[in-house]
Fold:
Amino acid sequence: MTRKNNILLAATHLLAVKGFKETSMAELAKVAGVAQGTIFYHYKNKEELFLAILRSFQEDIVAEFSRHRQTQQFDCGLQMVADVIDFYLHMASQMEERFMLLHRHDAHELARSNADFHACLEAIYDCLIDIFEQAILLGQKDGSIGDCSPRRMAMIIFTMVDGLVRFHTYNLYDVGGLYEDVVRACEAMLKKNIP
Structure:
């Protein structure tokens, strides 16, 4: 593993666990096993490093879903929605620290005053919502999903599923028992207007 990768992994962990303001470059250098100058060689400041992590996360989300879709076949769009829900939850458990980082207030706070952070967060959420929207559009095409705004419904479903991830991240509830209920609720919403 390269030094740059070690820096990204250490920074992801520290920013997810401690937060942006509480993570110092000195601590990051110690955890990554590099000199502070090495960090600044690759990233001019902590904001640039944080953005690199978020951009890498977006690329990995797209790649993971793309790989997954190539291995799956769906009878209908409604089945694809259930699969996307399942895979999103699986991916969140596999990339737990990065989802924790995304759910922290830090990135959203930086996005208020930094156009690069705003664009990056918007791109991440757009990419996630797009995946749900593709399944809804397929379902409308094959008749398994009723008449609705695909984008709005994708946002609603994403919010429900991401809420489960947040509950899990912060150990608020045992969300495993809610999975089937969320899938049934989504199916009911999506079938609602089928004649």
